Amino acid sequence: MSGAPAGRIARRFAQLRAEGRGALMPFLEAYDPDPATSMAILRGMPGAGADLIELGVPFTDPAADGPTVQKAGQRALKAGGTLAGAMAMVRDFRRDDDDTPVVLMGYLNPILAYGPERFCRDARESGVDGLIIVDMPPEEADEVAPFAEGLDMVRLVAPTTVANRLPIVLNGASGFIYYVAITGITGTRSADQAELARAIPQVKAQTDLPIAIGFGVRTPAQAADAVRVADGAVVASSLIDALEKTLDEQGRATPGSVRAVLDGVRALAEGVRGARG
Q: Minimal CA–CA distance to 268: which of 226, 231, 230?
């Protein structure tokens, strides 16, 4: 079943634990603003300090995404972004990088349209390591999980997840737990450090999996705060903002687009790597 101990995600978190530091997981929307630019960013992220990468799959109705990520998805869809295209990006990425874990983040409907068994096979063969299916509750995991051998099924835990539901959410989870630091949509406010300091130990008490904090983590300081209480920090909106600021009036990439995002990743990595020192 999914979550084999020898997988890239498990190896990377074990390596970081041995080094005494947390993980930085930047987000990139596949095909935003075009296939070539997003591919260049994806290839450059590990060298800029990404420990794992979250690759977003464009979708027409991204209910959990805030305005920033929604606009990235709209640009990506306009550029021809699809589930198959996202997997093709990972396949191309694997030609040069066989170590950095890549997690696909998306919604259930495109997977059902693609065919769950075919999707899991193609994702695995492309070099995808894990899946974050934002709108798939644990009760519906059987739509995908039976076919996901070799793919980690990353579950989301939110501040609103009550104590008696936590074991249900954690059952069948693998890779890591994605802790949603704020209620609501992405990119609308920042995580509260005091709330995280109270909440993360409660989750850790019920799982041995690493915990990565996302939603509301934007700055190097906030990423550093996240890895002081958890195992990783996921950053999306601030990197998309950095990209968007470089686009021309037609929303097209400019010569500084790739560099702007990777400079953001470098700054975040510096914060994460100095957090526990």
A: 226
